UniProtKB/TrEMBL annotation, chain A:
Top-level taxon of the source organism: Bacteria
Segments traversing the membrane: 14-36, 48-66, 96-123, 130-151, 171-193, 213-233, 245-265, 272-293, 299-318
Subcellular location: Cell membrane
Pfam families: BPD_transp_2 (PF02653)
Cellular component aspect of the GO annotation: plasma membrane
Keyword set, alphabetical order: Cell membrane, Membrane, Transmembrane, Transmembrane helix
Entry-linked InterPro entries: ABC_transp_permease (IPR001851)
GO function terms (MF aspect): transmembrane transporter activity
Name of the protein: ABC transporter permease
Main location: membrane
PANTHER family xrefs: ABC TRANSPORTER PERMEASE PROTEIN YPHD-RELATED-RELATED, GALACTOFURANOSE TRANSPORTER PERMEASE PROTEIN YTFT
Native source species: Frigidibacter albus
Membrane topology classification: Multi-pass membrane protein
Automatic annotation (TrEMBL), chain B:
Primary location group: membrane
Species per Swiss-Prot/TrEMBL record: Frigidibacter albus
Annotated ranges, domain ABC transporter: 3-238, 254-496
Protein's UniProt name: ATP-binding cassette domain-containing protein
Matches recorded under PROSITE patterns: ABC_TRANSPORTER_1, ABC_TRANSPORTER_2
TrEMBL record, chain C:
Protein name (Swiss-Prot/TrEMBL): Substrate-binding domain-containing protein
Stretches assigned to the Periplasmic binding protein domain: 25-269
InterPro entries, per database record: Peripla_BP_I (IPR028082), SBP_2_dom (IPR025997), YtfQ_transport (IPR054837)
MF-aspect GO terms: carbohydrate binding
Signal peptide per UniProt: 1-22
Species this chain originates from: Frigidibacter albus
């Protein structure tokens, strides 16, 4: 993808993000203030990119799953399982390395389970992942023993609330994961093969793509992202809450992917656009908290904003919007061509 | 005149799809609309049925100007359409499909009995003996087509447009459909018929109108034109080889570098068969739809794993567990149903072309962008794929060009054995000839090819020998002078023929 | 295991010896959906053990039909009394009538039912409004007339604890004009949301400098918020006072560390008062009040939080 086509792909998400930020700053004018105190950056935008970490991480894996025409409803529960595994490991005194290894392995095993159900047993993804969505919290509760498993490890909680050069660690993690997955799918042929099986599984298999293994790998990728999100959520509150960790986040992750302009019917995908989608959602969430409305309005405001965003991005509305913009562009058409030429 | 267009013009960004086309349809005639893909047939139909809004020109229905804005309005005026892919609802019953939107009701409730009676009445005269209470999908495509026609005739009643109605029918079903069409002609309907099968065009049509590049080229009574003239008009150039029927001698060659299939088959799909594929040989495979020819191809490619027999070549056993191993062994397979099994519609021409090669190389070794561009542009030029550029989604190309993209995908893997299942179905004449020429080219370079086709003349023209499949068995193999449309047809038709009897 | 067997046989033996009072009591618990619920189960079993009661325990796993089946089975076994923590409020009439016909007294724990009060002996529970009031009154005395801007972390929007604890707190601070609730948002009773919402409060209130106290509807949200306060570079318990409700073990650790200031106990010991009422009823037929309110005890840093933590940490919270 060249720079110009990439920009065209993510333009709706960038515009939406800008619009949401403007909207929030109307209610909370100090939105843009970022200060540097106690070796860390402090400000609402920093909160957004920190608080948005779990959904951003889930959205990375979810983007790939959705690109294969699947869906992964289990990521919230997988977060709980992985967070519980990590907390248990710390609690038992196995150290941070073992905790991270165990959490990552748990995420991969959950992904393997989902992937095998989908790819080898042919169960519809929504049903296959629903199983773990329901059972996963039970598994997490077995690990924590039904309580909030608290631990005391400054190294581990650094992952949730520490900073690197003033930037929150969760932010660093999701950005690096995003870049890592982005390079993995675009610098190799994985992205093309994933899109291919998403558009037409049968034809892709006949063209020699190992679709089953690829599907399993994609669900494992989603499980791994959920593990990272689970580790962050657990480290953040210094405890594994099997009941509430990642609760409903699978829906926010799907929403992020959709706001990112990725089709639920599979095919073309953009991880970057999904990450922007996650930031849009988090900006809305944080904005609602800042605006100081009574909490009864939270969900309604969020729903209204999401509807507006999705309607504006819908295929039937876009031509009308383009009509408006092309009129303006005609005046400066030569300039646009120059950019495209680069 | 029943239906006319006067100077109908329609343009899309960058192309003039219809350029002042005038066309007349009489009541009681079957009028074939002919042209290569992209000639403007579909655009003309879509303007007539209100799917597109014309830029200028008139549509006259019985002399009165009409302005259909949607297919529903066109239907109300009297213009009904039936497409290749039946656009009814397969899981509803035949009766519901026929009456949808105008079911007999009482107090707002649908009356099932009256609905069935109405449906039966609508089907009367079509020679169908079916239970209207069963789901539409439980009947063959031919029956579904006729149900769609009955519905269209009932709703519009004056003009019937048949867009590639026979593309997925076998010979007997085509005759069934044509009986219905002839009957409607007698009842005074004007029928516009679009098809790539020239034999069928000559069989059923009274008049022919040829379009090329959006322009009206000629209109003739069908009896006044022959096949050669027609093709010349459609292409705007002479095509010497198209009708040349000839067969080639059997390739004897050494069997050292041959691929030998012994006793391969799959229970319930195709009985075990033997096949030796020699280097540089074209093997034709003939048989009715559902006879087991596609099933044979699937076993040969590993799309359906064989449950018996062995496969060997000069270097030992060949692994055909799945398409991946078949491709690794140098096999390639262009399936019959391009849309569901062939193209990846949303992906670009370039990506579709490199897909099989990339899959064989593995995900970790991506083909560099520059190399992809070079390959795509190379095949676009070599196979004359008509696309604005290599980045266009392949789903937007015409059928013939999609087929060429799939061929390019396989040629890019440089296979030794290429299986083509109905490579020319639903493709316009120009692309048809190019694909046949391509087969000759690659065979000359030593590739072996298996062609499955319903067009016997085409099979005879390209094949060194022909295998006939019937009732899920390979029943005979024709070689040398025995390869002719006539012998093939007899082998297909003859009950209980054995290999000897066919000879 | 052996110990438990011995205990049981002792219980049976003491029954044989004819000690007065209810000896076999059925207990139908909702499930173990929260730490508090698990603690309630543990405490009930401990109380029964201390009193030499043979407790028949049944876990309904959040399903009313399981509870009704358990109650019928208790009636069939001819237990002396039944404790039930009802999962929902309605649909109890017929099974309670069956118990009444068998002359088995029923005591409701923690939650109420919509049936006629005649059908059960008494109900033991806490008063959510009262809990909030205790928290509010503590704050009034703690700030001692100084200006105080309070932020509030509500429970799940629309849930009765969230509504009642908010109402109670407002009643508690009603007379004190120096105290004002400046921000109130839901933290869904969870640590994660408690921390997240507290972070936004801190941002919105001048980095936390304008906040004098935090009132959280449960301890979990308070624990999350305490971390947010620490990360913002402030000292919870000093720069911002923290008062919450429930008295779970983790908040006692915070109290011991000086990071929280007060918590109001929602005691898991509903069974103790219930057993007391039953003993009195069996001894001389004393009819208890229809509602026995448990004590909403206030714990502060002065109440040996470390010791309280030790006493509670194994109750299953």
């Amino acid at each position: 993808m060249t720079g110009a086509t990439l920009l065209r792909r993510i333009a709706p998400q960038l515009l939406t993000l800008a619009a949401v930020i403007v909207l929030v700053s109307i209610y909370y004018p100090a939105f843009y203030q970022i200060v540097y105190v106690n070796d860390r950056l402090v400000g609402i935008p920093i909160d957004v990119i920190k608080r948005g970490a779990p959904v951003a991480l889930l959205a990375i894996g979810m983007t790939l799953v959705i690109a294969t025409r699947g869906i992964d409803l289990s990521v919230g529960a997988v977060m709980a399982i992985c967070g519980a595994s990590a907390a248990w490991s710390i609690d038992q005194g196995y150290g941070i390395g073992a905790a991270l290894g165990l959490a990552g392995a748990a995420g991969l095993v959950c992904g393997l389970w989902n992937g095998v159900l989908v790819a080898f047993f042919g169960i519809q993804p929504i049903v296959a992942t629903l199983i773990l969505m329901v059972a996963g919290r039970g598994i997490a509760q077995l690990i924590t023993g039904g309580t909030i498993l608290t631990f005391d490890s400054d190294t581990f909680s650094f992952l949730g609330s520490g900073t690197l050069l003033g930037v929150p660690v969760p932010t660093v993690i999701w950005i690096l994961t995003g870049i890592g997955f982005g390079l993995l799918v675009r610098r190799t042929a994985l992205g093309l093969l994933v899109e291919s099986i998403g558009v037409n599984l049968r034809a892709s298999t006949l063209a020699g793509i190992n679709s089953r293994v690829l599907l399993v790998a994609v669900y494992m990728g989603s499980g791994f992202c959920a593990a990272l999100a689970g580790v962050i959520a657990t480290a953040d509150i210094r405890g594994a809450d099997a009941n509430n960790a990642g609760l409903w986040l699978e829906l926010d992750a799907i929403l992020a992917v959709v706001i990112g302009g990725n089709s639920l019917l599979g095919g073309r995908f953009s991880i970057l656009a999904s990450l922007l989608g996650a930031m849009i959602i988090q900006t809305i969430n944080t904005g609602i908290l800042l605006a100081g409305f009574p909490s009864e309005f939270n969900l309604v405001i969020k729903a209204v904003l999401v509807i507006v965003i999705l309607v504006l991005q819908s295929p039937r509305i876009v031509p009308y919007l383009e009509l408006l913009t092309t009129r303006r562009q005609r005046v400066k058409a030569p300039a646009t061509k120059m950019e495209a030429g680069k | 005149m029943l239906l006319s267009t006067r100077d109908l013009t329609k343009s899309f960004p960058g192309t003039l799809a219809l350029d002042r086309v005038s066309f007349d349809l009489k009541a009681g005639e079957v009028h074939a609309l002919l042209g290569e893909n992209g000639a403007g047939k579909s655009t003309l139909i879509k303007c007539l049925t209100g799917a597109y809004r014309r830029d200028s020109g008139d549509i006259l229905f019985e002399g009165e100007p009409v302005f259909p804005q949607s297919t529903l309005e066109a239907q109300a005026i009297g213009i009904g359409t039936v497409y290749q892919e039946v656009n009814l609802l397969p899981n509803l019953t035949v009766a519901e499909n026929l009456t949808l939107g105008h079911q007999p009701t009482r107090f707002g409730m649908i009356r099932p009995r009256a609905t069935q009676a109405l449906a039966q009445e609508m089907l009367a005269g079509y020679g169908l003996d079916i239970d209207v209470r069963r789901p539409l999908e439980s009947y063959s495509v031919a029956v579904q087509q006729i149900v769609a026609i009955a519905r269209a005739v009932h709703l519009s009643g004056r003009v019937l447009i048949l867009d590639e109605p026979t593309a997925s029918l076998d010979a007997r079903e085509v005759q069934m459909l044509f009986d219905v069409v002839r009957d409607l002609r007698v009842r005074g309907l004007g029928i516009i018929f679009i098809s790539h099968f020239l034999d069928q065009v000559f069989e059923i049509s009274d008049s022919l109108t040829i379009l090329r590049n959006g322009r009206h080229i000629a209109t003739h009574p069908a009896a006044d034109v022959d096949r050669m003239q027609l093709i010349t008009l459609m292409l705007g150039r002479e095509l010497a080889e198209e009708t040349a029927v000839r067969h080639r001698p059997e390739v004897t060659g050494t069997s050292a570098d041959a691929i030998r299939f012994t006793g391969v088959g799959r229970r319930g799909r195709i009985a075990p068969f033997d096949l030796t594929v020699r280097k540089g040989e074209v093997i034709g495979m003939a048989g009715l739809l559902g006879s087991g020819r596609t099933e044979s191809a699937e076993v040969l490619f590993g799309a359906v794993a064989s449950d018996s027999g062995t496969v060997e070549d000069a270097s030992g056993p060949v692994d055909l567990r799945n398409p991946r191993s078949a491709i690794a062994a140098g096999f390639a397979f262009a399936p019959e149903d391009r849309k569901t099994d062939g193209i990846i519609a949303e992906l670009s021409v370039r990506e579709n072309i490199i897909l099989a090669l990339q899959a064989r190389q593995g995900w970790a070794r991506p083909i560099p962008q520059a190399e992809q561009q070079r390959m795509a542009n190379d095949y676009i030029a070599r196979l004359d794929i008509r696309t604005p550029d290599a980045e266009k989604p392949v789903g937007l190309l015409s059928g013939g060009n999609q087929q060429k993209v799939i061929l390019a995908r396989w040629l890019a893997t440089n296979p030794r054995f290429l299986i083509l299942d109905e490579p020319t179905r639903g493709i316009d004449v120009g692309a048809h000839a190019e694909i046949l020429r391509l087969i000759e080219d690659v065979v000359a370079q030593g590739m072996s090819i298996l062609v499955i086709s319903s067009e016997l003349e085409e099979l005879v023209a390209v094949s060194h020998r022909v295998i006939v499949v019937r009732d899920r068995q390979h029943v005979s193999e024709l070689t040398g002078d025995d390869v002719s449309p006539d012998t093939i047809l007899r082998a297909i038709a003859a009950p209980h023929t054995t290999l000897e009897a066919a000879e | 295991m052996l110990e438990r067997l011995l205990m049981a046989s002792v219980a049976v033996f003491s029954l044989g010896a004819g000690v007065a009072g209810a000896q076999t009591i059925g207990f139908s618990q909702i499930g173990s959906e929260s730490g508090w619920r698990a603690a309630e189960t543990t405490v009930t079993m401990n109380e029964a053990k201390e009193r030499g009661i043979d407790l028949r325990f049944s876990d309904a796993q959040q399903r009313q039909e399981n509870q009704i089946a358990a109650l019928r089975s208790f009636i069939a076994q001819g237990v002396d009394a039944i404790l039930v923590a009802p999962v929902v409020a309605t649909g109890w009439d017929s099974v309670l009538e069956e118990a009444a016909e068998a002359e088995i007294p029923v005591v409701l724990l923690d939650r109420m039912v919509d049936s006629s009060p005649d059908l059960y002996l008494t109900a033991v529970g806490s008063d959510l409004v009262h809990e909030g009031r205790v928290a509010g009154e503590w704050l009034v005395s703690a700030v001692n007339g100084e200006e105080c801007r309070v932020v509030e972390l509500q429970g799940t929007t629309g849930s009765s604890p969230a509504i009642d604890r908010k109402k109670g707190f407002e009643e508690g601070i009603a007379g004190a004009d120096n105290i004002e609730i400046v921000r109130s948002q839901t933290g869904d009773f969870t640590r994660t949301r408690g921390k997240e919402v507290m972070e936004s409060f801190l941002q919105a209130e001048n980095g936390g400098a304008d906040i004098c106290a935090l009132y959280a509807h449960n301890d979990d949200m308070a624990v999350g918020a305490i971390q947010a306060i620490k990360e913002a570079g402030l000292k919870p318990g000093e720069d911002i006072l923290v008062v919450s409700i429930d008295a779970v073990p983790d908040i006692f650790q915070a109290l011991a560390a000086g990071e929280a200031n007060a918590t109001v106990e929602l005691t898991p010991n509903m069974a103790g008062p219930a057993f007391d009422a039953l003993e009195a009823f069996f001894a001389d037929g004393t009819m208890p009040e229809k509602f026995i309110q448990t004590e909403s005890k206030l714990y502060t840093q002065a109440d040996d939080p470390a010791g309280e933590y030790e006493a509670r940490k194994d109750l299953g919270y």
